[in-house]
Amino acid sequence: MAHDTTHDTAFAGLAVDGLTVGYGKAPVLEGLSLTVPRGKVVAVVGPNGAGKSTLVRTISGLLRPTAGRIDYDGESLLRRRPDLVARHGVLMVPETRDIFGGMSVWENLKVAFDNLDPGGDEAAAFERVYTLFPILRERREQLAGNLSGGQQQMLAIARALLGRPKLLMLDEPSLGLARIVIRDIYAALQVLREQGLTVLLVEQNATMAVAFADHSLVLVNGRIVLQGPRETMAGNEDMVRHYLGAPPAAR
Question: Which of 107, 80, 102 minimizes the C-alpha distance to 162?
C-alpha cells in the first residue's frame, strides 16, 4: 500500500521504505516501499523471481538490506536477529513450511510455543489453533511428515500463531495445494482477519490473493508496477495477469 512514511514515525503497522536487497552485486529489490496498516491484509503478487520471498525474508531479519528502512509501529526492525524480529511480533510462514517431519503435530506446536511464547498459557494457546484448524487436534499424535500438504501448511501457520503475531507474513501459502484445501486455508485467514490480525500475503495465485486482500501490489523484477485496493485491482484482472505473464481470464 502506498504511504509516505518519511516523517511518520508513529505509523501503526509495517512500513518499508526505499528497501534495496541483493545477492552479491545484483539487486533483487530496488528502492521498494510499501505499508501494511494495522488490521489490514496486503497482498504482494508477482511471477517467479520477482523478489516476493526476498521481501519477507528481509523483513524477518534473514537477509540484510543494503539500503532502506523497515519499521513496525514506528520501531525499526533493521539489524535485528530473526528471533528478535519474531519476539517483536513479526512472524513469517515460509514457503518451505519448515515443520519437523519426524516429530508429532503436538511436538511441533510445543516447540514453537516454547520458543515464541515462553510463560504463556499453553492450554489456551493450543485451543486457539485447534479451533482454527480442527484437523490438527485430530492428528496431534501423528508425525508431521505424514500429513498432507494442506495439513502441513495449516501446521506451519498454527506454529506461527503460537507466537501471538502482530504481523503474520505468509509466503506462498497456496503453493501446490488443491483448490478445496486453499479454500480452507483462506477461510482460516478470514477468521484471523476478523480477529484484527495484520497480514502480509505473498502469492503467485493472483486471483485468490487480490480478491482476498484489502490492498494488492504487483511486484516484477524487484519493483512495484501496479497496486490498488481490492475494488480497483479486482476490476483490473487482465492488467494484473499481463504483468504476471499469464493469459487473460476466460470470459
Answer: 107
| CA–CA gap between residue 162 and residue 164 (Å, rounded) | 5
Closest Cα to residue 90, out of 110, 109, 69, 116? 116
Q: How many CB atoms lie within 10 A of CB 224?
A: 19
Rounded to an integer, what distance in angstroms lies between the CA atom of residue 231 and that of residue 214? 9
Task: Please give the mean pLDDT across all residues of the chain.
Answer: 89
Asked whether 32 and 66 are in contact (CB, 8 A), the reply is no
Tens digits of residue pLDDT in 161-195 = 999 999 999 999 998 889 999 999 999 999 999 99
User: What structural domains and CATH numbers belong to the chain?
Assistant: 1-89+165-246 (3.40.50.300), 99-163 (no CATH)
Q: Is 178 helix (H, G, I), strand (E, B) or coil?
A: coil
Contact predicate 110/99, CB 8 Å: no
Query: How confident is the model over 37-58, as pLDDT tens digits?
Result: 999 999 999 988 899 999 999 9
Distance CA 75, CA 145 (A): 38
Question: Predicted confidence band at 247 (pLDDT cuts at 50, 70, 90)?
Answer: very low
The model carries a pTM of 0.89
